[in-house]
Amino acid sequence: MESNSLFPDPMKMWRDAVTNMEKDFNSRATESMKDPETVRSMQQMMAATEGMQQSFEQALETYLHTANLPTRKDINALSEKLDIINEKIDTLQRNQASRDSVPRPSRTRRPPSADATAEKE
Question: Which residue has the higher pLDDT, 4 or 88?
Fold first, then answer.
């Protein structure tokens, strides 16, 4: 749009409003973080949130164990074991392929004929 337009650009107005609100919010947040009481209460709130999260994880783990379902730890452990097994299979396949590529001696020995076995008896 032209800058000389009779109508204001609504998107520019929106961007300016959001930018001003963001600056105002950041300055107020910075000022409030200087207050030791605010910092202390935020630390307490974070500690409480962490405690609630741990309690929830323990309750969920107990529920999954009761329902005989695997937890995230169980699935991660299985995934690690599967990775190890897959690596071993890959190693065995590479070893087998290298063994197959080595030429073997030709088999020239023939089984005894029926006449030769009859003469021995």
Answer: 88
